[in-house]
Each structure stands twice: as C-alpha cells, then as structure tokens.
Write a structure and sequence with these properties.
The chain is mainly β. The chain has one domain. It is 0% helix and 51% strand. The chain contains no helices and five strands. Strand 1 and strand 2 form a beta hairpin. The N and C termini lie far apart (24 Å). It comes from Shinella yambaruensis. InterPro entries: DUF2158. This is DUF2158 domain-containing protein.
Amino acid sequence: MAEQFETGDVVDLKSGGPLMTVNRVNKDGDVICEWFNQEGQKYEPKWHAFKPQMLRRLKSKGSNT
C-alpha cells in the first residue's frame, strides 16, 4: 500500500532529486508537490503531480525532525 501524504509534508523522489513540499493530494490520489530550482541568482518555483509510490516522506507536517 502506498504511503499517505498530507499538505506540508517534505518529500523527495525515491530516485533522488530536490526536496519538495506537498501542496495537496488530488482526487485521483496524485500528490501535488512544489519546489524551487535555482537558476543563477534566481529561484524558479516549480510543481508537478507524482504518484505516491514515487515519493518518500522526509519530514511530516509540523514535525521538527
């Protein structure tokens, strides 16, 4: 069974990549994540919908660890 995610969880892809914040889980169960890519001196906001099986939770919403 896939891990359950909540808005505010910090996650990354199991295959690696940037830290992302869960924005929401849509009605189809896809997890909408947001992150920033650094491009020179600027940070560009990005988002994408991922299947929960592709993600791992690094920090739960409201957790200090």
